[in-house]
Amino acid sequence: MPKVVFQIEGANPVEITCSSGDNLLELARRANVAIDAPCSGNGSCGKCRVKLVEGEVESRIPRHITEEEYEAGWRLSCNCKVLGDCTVFVPDIASAYQSRMKTADLSSPKEIAIFEDCQNSLKASGIAFENQFRAVVLDMAEPTVDDTMPDNERLSWALQEALGVEKIEIPFAVMVKLASTLRTYNFHVCVKGELRGDSFLCMEISAPEDTAIVGCAIDIGTTTVTMVLTDLTSGKLLAKGSSGNGQIRYGADVINRIIEQGREGGKKKLQDAIIKETLNPIIANLCKTANISARSILRLCVAANTTMNHLFVGVDAEPVRMEPYIPSFFGWEGLTAGDLKLPANPLAK
Q: What sign results for the dihedral spanned by CA atoms 303, 304, 310, 311?
């Protein structure tokens, strides 16, 4: 089978094996090599330029490349078919869509002032800044041969007394780490969760000093993604950052991305581009900046246009572009971070 080597400017080479006749742009996408293709490989934008270093590919001279450039090895990857082993050079500008991740300097009075002014305006309009999330530090008696109460009952009784509620819910995500966490911290722990009337949903159990309760707000734009972390107790802005939307290499506009997601494996490609390549690194970076655990993120809010929302969750967006233009959803309240494998508390909604 032919082998293609992508020599990426400023990065390590990437190799991939393929079949004779495979499209070069599709191979790059399969190998997770970023090549700018706003038209999603339709041959109309002329931006997916690469340079053939050695080997042979089948391609015609497109209108976007002069004869001189063609003789020098430049090709549009979207109209190249691999005929055998070859090496192609991918300019750094081809991955320019991956704008360097930026973290806002929250020591800047200007950044803080913008956030606080917005917060004060919302409060003045009558919007209540309150929530039902709680962090409770418990100090429980350790089990003995005379006190063999199960861990879940011991925790439930302590929470009922501390919060004054009747029912305690301990979901699987907490139960699987309950025994080890209790014993690591000698039954002195912090339990985080949400009050729901007369019940309390346990969402996390951690070290007693880990009392952070964090909210994460995400704006998924067609080209840029922005995110903030806030303290759900104080309302303080903890971290803020942005990055390019990794989906852009599958098309600069929503129509081309919908077309791409309709191809074999397309929905997963688009979803991986936004979650694995874009959101996950930003969340990790902001959590490091704020010095918090990602599992402390108990609430997530994601805003985007209808197409971006469908591509984000991996739901077919084709009906959105076809008359009568009906989406599968506008809002999705029950979706959790665990459903999408986002680096946050798996029960966060």
A: negative
- pLDDT for 100 equals 55
Tokens 């246009």 label which residue? 305
Q: Which strand (E) or helix (H) includes residue 269?
A: helix 266-274
Contact 205, 189 (CB under 8 A): yes
Helix (H) or strand (E) holding 102: strand 102-103
199-206 and 167-169 as β-strands: parallel, antiparallel, unpaired? Answer: parallel
**Low-confidence stretches of the chain (pLDDT beneath 70):** 93-101, 105
Cα separation, 150 vs 6, in Å, equals 57
33 class by beta-carbon count within 10 Å (0-12 exposed, 13-18 middle, 19+ buried): buried
What is the spatial order of strands in the sheet that 224-231 belongs to?
102-103, 237-244, 224-231, 214-220, 297-304
Torsion sign over Cα 152, 154, 155, 157:
positive
Whole-prediction pTM value? 0.79
Other C-beta atoms lying within 10 Å of the C-beta of residue 44 = 14
Please provide residue 95's backbone torsions phi and psi, each rounded to the nearest 5 degrees: -110, 25
Predicted pLDDT at 348: 97
In this prediction, residue 94 carries a pLDDT of 45
Place of tokens 């599709």: 26
Q: What are phi and psi of 225, to 5 degrees?
A: -115, 130
Q: Decide if 265 contacts 250 (C-beta within 8 A).
A: no
Q: Which of 332, 263, 282, 342 is nearest to 29 (CA)?
A: 263
